[in-house]
C-alpha cells in the first residue's frame, strides 16, 4: 500500500487503507492501525501461528507404531475367522489411538479455519468507527476475491498489473486479509494460496460503498424503491431470526418507513415530525430518537443492525 504512482492506475484506484479512509475522516499516520485498531491488526498478523504444532517426537512415534503393527501382523497372519477379525479390530483401535495426534493435526491444519472471524475482529476494535472499518475490510476482501472490485498490484519498478482469475485466490484464502493490512511482503508468505501479488495492492472502488456502512440515513435515502423494500424485508426477517424481533432495530425500521412515507418525504425535517408521528406504526418514539434516526446516528439501532450477517444483504 505504498510507493505506487497513481498516474499509472485507473482513476478511482486507491490503497485499501485509503479507500477505508474515504468513509471516516481520521488523522494521518499509521493509517491501518488508526482505522482498524491495534488489537485487530495484531490479531490479523498473528492468526496463522494459531495452527497447532506437530505432535512431539514424530520419529519415535512412527517407529513405535510400525513395531506394534508388525508384532500384531505376526500373531494374526496364521489365524483365520473370528480370531483374525478380533485382532484386526484391536489393530484398528490401536492405530486410531496411536495416530490420534497425527489425525487431529492433519484435520486441523487442512480443514479448519484459524484466523479470527469478522465478529472476533470487530470485538477487538477500540470504538464503533474501527468496528465498521473491520467489517468493511472483510467485505472488500470478499469482493476482491470474487473479482467484483478491480484490483491491481504495483511492482517496485512501477509496473501495474490487473489481478484476475486465479491471481485473486490469495484474497479469498483463510489469511487473505494479511495482504490488506501489512506492507511487509514476508507476512504475505504465510498465505497458502498462490500466486501472491508482487507489490503494493490498489483497488478501484468504482463508487462502491461497503454494506457494513449501512445506516438509517442510507436506508432513508435509498433511491431505488424495489431495492429499499428488499433490504427492509431482509433486515426485518433476519432480526426476528436473531431474536431481535423487538427493540431498537424493529422500532428503528418503523421510523425509517415513516420517514419515507409520501406525506413526509420532501418536507423539512423539523416540520415533518408531526407527520412522521401520524404515520408511525408500532411503539411511540421520542423526538430525540426520531432525530437520531434522521441523522443516521442512533447507536442502538446501528449496533443491532451491524450484528446481522450483512454480507448477505440484498
* Whole-angstrom Rg: 27 Å
Query: What number is the mean pLDDT?
Result: 77
Q: Supply the helix-strand structural class.
A: mainly alpha
N- to C-terminal distance: 31 Å
Helix-strand pattern:
EHHHHHHHEEHHHEHHHHHH
Low-confidence stretches: 1-7, 22-29
Structure annotation, total helices: 16
**Helix content bin:** 40-55%
Categorize the overall geometry: elongated
Report the biggest beta sheet as strand number plus sense, adding barrel if it closes. 4 strands, antiparallel
Approximately how much beta-strand content do the residues carry? 5-15%
Give the tags.
314 residues, mainly alpha, four-stranded antiparallel sheet, 16 helices, 4 strands, elongated
Quick rundown:
The chain is mainly α and about 325 residues long. It is about 55% helix and about 5% strand.
Structure, described:
There is one protein chain. The protein has 314 residues and is mainly alpha-helical. The protein has helices at residues 16-21, 31-36, 38-46, 58-76, 81-110, 118-124, 128-146, 169-172, 178-181, 185-188, 216-220, 225-241, 248-259, 269-279, 287-295, 299-306; strands at 13-15, 150-154, 160-162, 200-204. A four-stranded antiparallel β-sheet has the order 1-4-2-3. Helix 3 packs antiparallel against helix 6 (118-124). It starts with 12 loop residues before the first strand and ends in an 8-residue tail after the last helix. The model is unreliable at 1-7 and 22-29 (pLDDT under 50).
